[in-house]
Design a protein that fits this description.
The structure holds two protein chains of two kinds. By secondary structure, chain A is mainly beta. Chain A has one helix and eleven strands, in the order βββββββββαββ. The chains are: A mainly beta, B mainly beta.
């Protein structure tokens, strides 16, 4: 159980285009999903917290107009990188917290396999 | 400012050795400490610790949390080449996880 999928796993795009990444919890409901970015040889940096049915909460320094997050259902959150530039090239990882575990106060997050974005 | 510090940043050991990874933290509203293993893709969950002094064990891996001294250790005994990875420590607070920089472990045959 507790499987999170991400799509696509890898994307290459031209500078100026927009890219959408999907994150799905496959066998549990997630009221909260998280989006991280990881640059080579660095740790995961939280970009935003995505709450089902409400606006995402962005971390300091993350542009909300550039990284659009939509969490329309209990199993799906999307991250759209708008007008991507080469400096946006990174490994984007989502995670999800089980709605039932969250209610019990647990912090465990289940991670998706990640999306490698390369902007040319 | 909250912080999670892991040490060492990297180490190389021979198969069969034991490694000890450290994670210290200063985080407000601490709820839990989690260890993850990251190979080429996203992190995979190892342990979650919420109570001090209780050892969590899974095969050759074990971990303990000291909430008084604000640190945790992850031990790997009888290491194998498949243990080569980056090990991430994360602290849960305010509903979020804050990650340390990770420790890269290389196990040589």
């Amino acid at each position: 159980g507790a499987v999170v999928s991400q799509h696509p796993s890898r994307v290459i795009c031209k500078s100026g285009t927009s890219v959408k990444i999907e994150c799905r919890s496959l066998d549990f409901q997630a009221t909260t999903m998280f989006w991280y970015r990881q640059f080579p040889k660095q740790s995961l940096m939280l970009m935003a917290t995505s709450n089902e049915g409400s606006k995402a909460t962005y971390e300091q320094g993350v542009e909300k107009d550039k990284f659009l997050i939509n969490h329309a259902s209990l199993t799906l959150s999307t991250l759209t990188v708008t007008s991507a530039h080469p400096e946006d090239s990174s490994f984007y990882i989502c995670s999800a917290r089980d709605r039932l575990q969250a209610g019990a106060g647990y912090n465990e997050q289940f991670f998706g396999p990640g999306t490698r974005l390369t902007v040319l | 400012e909250d912080k999670v510090v892991q040490s060492p940043l990297s180490l190389v050991v021979h198969e069969g050795d034991t490694v000890t990874l450290n994670c210290s933290y200063e985080v407000t509203n601490f709820r839990s400490l989690l260890w993850y293993k990251q190979e080429k893709k996203a992190p995979t969950f190892l342990f979650m610790l919420t109570s001090s002094g209780i050892e969590k064990k899974s095969g050759r891996l074990s971990s303990i949390l000291d909430k008084k001294e604000l640190f945790s250790i992850l031990n790997i005994t009888a290491t194998q080449t498949g243990d080569s990875a980056v090990y991430l420590c994360a602290v849960g607070s305010w509903g979020k996880l804050q990650f340390g920089a990770g420790t890269q472990v290389v196990v040589t045959p």
